[in-house]
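Q: Give me the 3D complex with nicotinamide-adenine-dinucleotide.
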Amino acid sequence: MKTKILKIGIIGVGHLGQHHVKHYKNIKNVKLIGVFDTNSTQASKIASKYKTTKFKTVYELINKTDALSIVTPTDTHYTVARDCIKFGKHVFIEKPITNTIKEADELIKLAKKRKLIIQIGHIERVNPALLALKPYKIKPKFIEIQRLAPYSIRGTEVPVVLDKMIHDIDILLSIINSPIKTIQANGISIITDSIDVAHARIKFSNNSVANITSSRIAKKDIRKIKLFQRDLYCTIDLLKCITEIYEINGESESKIQAPFNYKGKKKIITYTKPKIKKTDPLKIELINFINSINGIENPIVTGEGGRDALKLAIKITQLIKKESNC
Ligand code: NAD
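A: Here is the predicted complex, encoded as structure tokens.
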């Protein structure tokens, strides 16, 4: 298949958007056209750093491109993405897709009608520590996820569930292929006017249970997942990029083995710590976006995937608001 050189623009070049610019400069089949940011000083700074063009209006940039990254605050995703799609452009929207399901559905419908790609930046899906689980049959019955971060003004335009927990909701939905049976949730507001700390217990129809905790009022960053299933327990440190797998009678080549007896039978616990090649997940996502437009790959997280994660995040937020009056 003949691949096309795609003309790319970035809308919103703050904390994360500037990394989109940096990566696009080095991705095959990409011609970086330029950037737009409502903060003109920031746009100038990033355009000059990466030797690209700063556009005066978003429409001038949209007009000159085939596809755009939208890296603006969440509450602007819908209007910015809608404009891009209406002008026939593919979009990579940073997570969460939008603020509401209605907005997400409208974007998905508009893009489908125009045969355009919508990809959502749920970056943890390509975290190498999570990808290290690929060789294993992962069917967890109990999942514990913790995502803690020190306070930052960025992201506080939405509750912590939509800013931080949504990463883990997306991971969870990608691991467990079963409808949700029940959700219990609690949370509190500490610094902002919305939920700063949240906890959700999600039970699926296949009886798997997940406990997720997220906080934006923590001393240090922690992003950890623990998965428990018959004959297997594993821990994933998404931040340090460490995955550790404990299996009963696993086929692991691991030298670390612990024999034990259970009901008269000899068994062995094997410990494996896969060698993880550090990669840049954002670059992987953007290459996947370019390849998806060129028809070589499918988006890792589609608009529908982003919408499903948002739907559960909103449900959890509503439950917390009802339970905790915040
Ligand atoms: P930021 O505040 O640092 O940057 C946002 C930029 O967008 C600012 O420079 C602002 O001036 C600009 N902006 C605001 N409204 C705009 C508009 N209508 N048009 C053009 N520019 C506009 O925020 P950030 O931390 O870079 O976050 C941006 C988005 O990325 C958010 O949706 C956030 O949830 C997401 N994000 C994702 C991850 C991840 O891990 N995938 C990490 C951080 C942020």
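A quick observation: The chain is about 30% helix and 30% strand.
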